[in-house]
Write a structure and sequence with these properties.
It holds the Pfam family p450. This protein has about 325 residues and is mainly alpha-helical. The protein contains 13 helices and two strands; from the N terminus they run H-E-E-H-H-H-H-H-H-H-H-H-H-H-H.
Length: about 325
């Protein structure tokens, strides 16, 4: 299987057709490779008849993914509760306005880094833009800046040109980036391999991935508790920042910003529920947005749409190598 699950599944589809099955020990999994069959099952509508879209996994339960959050939650009431909170928060006008403004500022920051690097420094654009989206999601989720782009920029320039940010913050951001990248591998390993293989044959990897998940959870819980402590020091009624974390922490509490409504749900979210939502924002949200940006970057190199990007300062003309113009070599996104 390797590390590229999608490539592996595509190879199996080419060999066995649109429907095939795999076994991991005694666990049988049926794969469906036709959109017309998969779409009704995977539709996100609350009226979907297929709430549980996959088999329950001991490994997923072991790392706590089947009872919290949205993506893998198999408890319907818990899923409905989290989905209601999450969907109303991300549709809040003040939250959206704040996120858009922050993203505009991040683009200016990205442009300043690329301009400073000039045409002499080789830049891995896959790393650079991944960190851009980490910064974007982190600001939207917490209201704070992770300075992920700055951390990568500092590895490319001498000390006298580095962005001045606390080393502790940059180190924490790098740890979060590492956790985001490894979360999918950990979930895949825990889902596909049965307990006997994980606990005895592949015990080293099982311990490694479980510890990685626990460390990521601890980081997110620390962020949540620090924000909760900050809110508690402020007088009741004082204006709060409408970022996702603050909204999730204050809804259905005396400090409720009254920006969102939760219908018949009256209790506030627990720290673990908020932690699960933050994890999904970072682990799922960043990759989803990055893939869409990658597609636009590839399309911009084609004659059919190249004219749309002709004025871009960051992309070469169509049919030329995939580089950021004047900013060194760009890796494939």
């Amino acid at each position: 299987m390797g590390k590229d699950l999608a490539h592996w599944a595509h190879e199996l589809q080419g060999k066995h057709g649109d429907m095939f099955e795999t076994y991991y020990g005694s666990q049988r999994t049926i794969w469906v490779g036709r959109a017309d069959l998969a779409a009704p099952i995977l539709a996100s509508s609350t009226k979907n008849n297929y709430f549980n879209r996959g088999v329950s996994s001991p490994g997923m339960r072991e790392i706590g993914l089947e009872t919290v959050g949205i993506a893998a939650n198999r408890d319907y009431e818990s899923w409905k509760f989290n989905r209601r909170f999450f969907s109303t928060v991300v549709m809040s006008p003040r939250f959206l306005k704040k996120s858009i403004t922050a993203t505009e500022k991040l683009f200016m920051e990205a442009a300043s880094y690329l301009t400073t690097l000039g045409g002499e420094t080789s830049v891995d654009m896959s790393k650079f833009w991944f960190r851009f989206f980490v910064d974007s999601m982190y600001i939207s989720a917490t209201g704070n800046h992770a300075h992920a782009m700055a951390g990568y920029f500092n590895t490319l320039v001498p000390d006298n040109k580095q962005a001045d940010h606390p080393k502790e913050l940059l180190d924490l951001t790098e740890e979060i980036i590492y956790s985001i990248k490894n979360e999918f591998f950990a979930a895949s390993f825990m889902f596909f391999f049965p307990p006997f293989i994980r606990h005895y044959i592949l015990r080293h990897y099982n311990t490694k991935y479980v510890n990685q998940v626990k460390r990521f959870n601890d980081i997110l819980l620390s962020i949540i508790r620090n924000r909760k402590a900050e809110i508690d020091t402020l007088p009741v009624g004082e204006s709060l920042n409408p970022d996702m974390l603050t909204l999730l922490l204050t809804t259905n509490t005396p400090r409720d910003l009254k920006i969102i409504t939760t219908g018949d749900i009256t209790r506030p979210m627990t720290d673990d529920e908020i932690r699960a939502d933050l994890k999904e924002i970072f682990s799922v949200g960043i990759d989803t947005v990055l893939y869409h940006y990658s597609l636009l970057s590839v399309l911009s190199l084609e004659d059919r749409v190249g004219s749309v990007w002709a004025g871009s300062a960051w992309l070469k003309k169509p049919n030329q190598p995939a580089q950021a113009r004047g900013h060194g070599q760009a890796g494939l996104l």
